Prior knowledge:
globular; disordered N terminus
Amino acid sequence: MLRITLLAVLSAASAASWHSDFKSAGQAARESGKPLLVDFQALWCYSCYFMEQHVLEKPGFLSAAQGLVLAKLDVDTEEGRRLRDEHRANFMPSYLILSSEGREIGRIVGE
């Protein structure tokens, strides 16, 4: 029983913590000095769902993401739409990597 409890605690601790708004994610990146990974997604996007289930929740990604601040933005919200247009993230999913100062340092488009 102790082993199961320990595994549950460790799994919860290794789960990535995603910000749902850009402002708090940017502040966390500035304060920590870590790059910011922004996941532009939409509920209607199958590829977004696929990436969520088969990449973003897997141990390898979660391990690598420890060095990042993470943000998921729904492009169908006012903030998501504005930031999608501002960063020219027109295809779903789009992933932007921003420096802790907010400068784009990488981009991945699609699965």
